[in-house]
Please model this.
Amino acid sequence: MDSKFVIFGQERAGTTSLISALNKNDRIVHEPLSSLTGDLEHNPRYSQIIKDHKMDPNNLPESKNIPYFNKFNNIAEDYERLWSFLDSLFNTFDGVKHVWCTSSEEGNENFLSYCQAHGIKIIFQYRESAFDPAVSWQLANQVQIWQLGENKEHKSTVDSFDYQELEEPPIKRRTAWYKKYIPHYHSLLPPNSLVSKYEDLYGLETYQERLEKFNSIVDYLDIEIDENNVENFLGTDRRVFGKKAYNKIPNYQEMFDKYGREKIIL
Model:
């Protein structure tokens, strides 16, 4: 693989499944600008880069500009330090997944600036629905499960969970947030970026339809893929929260009636 690429996307928009389908191997790093990432524990080469750049989260101050206590956001906002870190990262890895909610606006703009200056291909992954990812985020926090797992090992927990009512303030806040920032980051993309909409990939009903859409992404990146891996992560039973979960939420219809028709049109 000669192409360097990033998936720069919205949370709860299928970014993890997409990068896993593209290449599930040690040439990819997940969330390198989040001090909360699991890759700190299980990706030795990434951990070494963190050490080399003196980015031990225990020794960094908390950022004032981003929630979730992501201490790496201070690095993302430091233009020179970020570029040095990304030089090391892309010398070691071919693909990076970065979800923009883990960094501040300044950090994300610096990240996109680096990618444009270095000719790194960008897949911009987002959801047209502003409501669905807001709900998915809240449910994931209820269940404490964000993905089904490589072998769908968390599916039974998701299916049997006793879902609580949705909290309206976070739903209202997130739908407004998506409507503001998705167009903003889209406007900053280099001209040759590829825009990928969740609904046009994971929303398709058959695996064959999804595969055709996915192959257009592969052609854009010009990379090799593992077909077995693709079949697993593009499966039609991969959605974490769907109708089965929604039917258990006491006030789902009420929240849908208020916010369910909120769309992001690019």
